[in-house]
Amino acid sequence: MKARTLKKNKVNVVTLGCSKNIFDSEVMMAQLKANNFDVEHESTSDDSEIVIINTCGFIDNAKEESINTIVQYAEAKAAGLVHKVYVTGCLSERYKDDLEKEIPEVDAYFGTRDLPRLLKTLKADYKHELVGERLLTTPNHFAYFKIAEGCDRPCSFCAIPLMRGKHVSTPIEDLVTQAKSLAAKGVKELMLIAQDLTYYGLDIYKKRALADLLEQLSDVEGIEWIRLHYAFPAGFPMDVLEVMNRKPNICNYLDMPLQHGSTSMLKAMRRGITREKTEELVNEIRAKVPGIAVRTTLIAGYPGETEEDFQEMYEFVEKMRFERLGIFTYSHEENTHAYNFEDDVPEKVKKQRADKIMALQSDISYSLNQEKVGKTFKVLFDRAEGDYFIGRTEFDSPEVDNEVLVKKENTYVRIGDYANVQITSADHFDLYGEVAE
Ligand code: SF4
Fold first, then answer.
1. What is the pLDDT of residues 41-92, one digit of tens each?
2. How far is the CA of 285 from the centre of ligand 1 (A)?
3. Which of 69, 97, 78 is nearest to 12 (CA)?
4. Global pTM?
C-alpha cells in the first residue's frame, strides 16, 4: 500500500454488525462533526487520518469479521496509511483485555457506552445538546430508530446482555423530538429497533409503553411508515396491534424472533414460552391485524437439539408459513448459560438443518408472492440499479426482506418517493411490477 497524504482531523467510521450499531455510529458521527471533524462513513477515499471501527461481537462469523477488519486497519497503520485506529462496539466491550494484548497497534479500545470517553481521547467534547442527533448512513428517506438499549432477558444462547447491559428505555418525549428532527430532514420511514422492543417502558414507566410510544410517533408529521423490529413473544403487548390497526402509518409488519419450534428447545433456550403458546400468539396477531407480514428468526443446532426437535421446527415453519424468515446456526458463546452445555450438534448438521429450513421458506415465500400478482401496493423506492428502480412495500424491511423491481424503460420514479405499483410477476424473494397510473 503506497503512503499518501492523510487529511488532518478526517475520520473514517466503519460499522459492522446490526442496525443498533449503525444507529450508534450515526450518533458518534454527529458528535464528531459538531467537534469540527471531517467525518465519513466507510470512506473509499482512504485519506482519513483516523479510523474508528464499530465492531460486532454477537456470534462467531461476526466476531471473525470484526477481528479481520481491526487487523486490516492495524496493518494499514503500520504501513503509514492511517495515523490512528480506534475500536469500539460489542467485540471491544466483550474482549477488550484480549484485544489489547493481541492487537496492540490499535490506539485505544472502547465499550458500547463509551462515546464520551472516545471523544475525549480525540480531544473533543460530548455535546449533550445533540442527544439523539445523527448523521444518517442510510438513504435519507429511512432511518433506524433505537428506542432502548440493553436487555433483561435470560435467553441461554445470547451474549448481547453481556455487551449491551441492562434494558434502558429512551423517554417518549426524547424519541418524539428525534423523530421530528428526522422528519424535518426528509425521513419518511422509521425502523423501530431495540434488543427487545416489547419491553419498552417497563423500566421508566413501570408498564409496557410501546403502544403509547407508537401513538405519539405516528402523529409526527412527515413520518409515513413506522416498522417494528425485535419484538419478544412472551408477554407481547397486544395493545400495540390496536394502534397498528388504527394508525395507517404503522406498517402491518412485525419482526418477532421466535428462535425455535420445539417446546423442549424453547425451554432449554429459556425463552419463557412454549410451541403451543407461540402458535396461539402468532394466530392471534394475524387475526387482529389481517394481512400483517410476520418476520421471524430461528436457530438451528442448539445444544441437545435432536432430529425430532429439528423435525418439530420444520413442521412449525411449514404450518405457520411466515411471510419472512431467517435462520442462524447456533454459535457457542462464552459466558452465556448455554456455554455450560456441550456444543454437541456437528457444524455440518447445523448447516444442513438451517439449509433445509431456508429451502422450505423459499418455497413458502414463492407461493405467498404469487398471491400478490395483479395487486397494487404502495412502494417506497430505495435505489436505482441496472435496468430497475428498486423499492419495498410496507411488508418489507431494508436489507432483509423482499424487493419490488420496476423497469426503468417504462417509467421514472424519484428515489425516496412512494408510488403505487401493480405487481405483474413474482419469484421467491422479489416482485416485479409497473407503476399504476
Ligand atoms: S431478548 Fe434478544 S437480546 Fe435479549 S437475551 Fe434474548 S435473544 Fe438476547
1. 998 887 889 999 999 999 999 999 999 999 999 999 999 999 999 999 999 9
2. 21
3. 69
4. 0.95
